Target: HTH merR-type domain-containing protein
Amino acid sequence: MTDGVTIGQAAAFAGVTGKTARHYHEHGLINEPRRDNSGYRCSGSADLLRLVQVRPPAEIGAIRDADLTASPPRSSTLNGASTTGWTS
Model:
């Protein structure tokens, strides 16, 4: 393979496992990369970018839980206008 990286290399780059990357392909979260002459998935830079953008379910849950427990920011004013968008 001379053009692109294997699924294992792509997964390692994105911080997920190859199994997770294949799961993303199967469920349409990312497009399956093209295959080389040997039948291996061959990820290019656009494939790597998308793989990095997709977040594992556990990470999404942690972000969601953090957002639910966060309190609204304190309002501040700049020339008499609120800068947070929160109303009292």
Notes: The radius of gyration is 20 Å. The longest strand covers residues 77-78.
